[in-house]
Amino acid sequence: MDQHKVLSEIKFKTSRSSGAGGQNVNKVESKVTLIWSIWDSEAFDQEQKSRLAHKLNTRISQEGLLQLDSSETRSQLQNKEIVTEKFLSLLNEALVPAKKRKPTKIPKSVILERLDRKKKNSQKKSGRNVRNYLD
């Protein structure tokens, strides 16, 4: 993944943040929203785009836009850095291909042990039956 190419494709939008800040909250736009169009990106090939779309489908809008917010600090610059790091780590995680599952078979010895345990437990419980005491 070419980070410089990806970072050149993202757009930032600022808005007023909720939370701590006192009167500062009412006049400074410290919340940062990162917007990135997955299908218009030239940093990834079609296969990578489809993998990203599949893994991030809950985060992508119907228009194909990925939006991430950060309002953790009072500083707009720090929020911009935080949301950029979050974005890059999200892309790196989504691009990792899923491991193939290797089907395994339960060993015969394990099956026999389980059946033996069931048989012993059954005998123990049937020994507690009231009819055994009456005879």
UniProtKB/TrEMBL annotation:
The keyword Methyltransferase does not apply. GO terms for molecular function: peptidyl-tRNA hydrolase activity; ribosome binding; translation release factor activity. Signal peptide: none annotated. One of its GO terms (biological process) is rescue of stalled ribosome. The keyword Transcription does not apply. Residues 112-135 are annotated as: Disordered. Residues 16-32 form the Prokaryotic-type class I peptide chain release factors domain. Residues 117-128 have a biased composition (Basic residues). Keywords: Hydrolase. Belongs to the prokaryotic/mitochondrial release factor family. This is Aminoacyl-tRNA hydrolase. The lineage of its organism: Bacteria, Pseudomonadati, Bacteroidota, Sphingobacteriia, Sphingobacteriales.
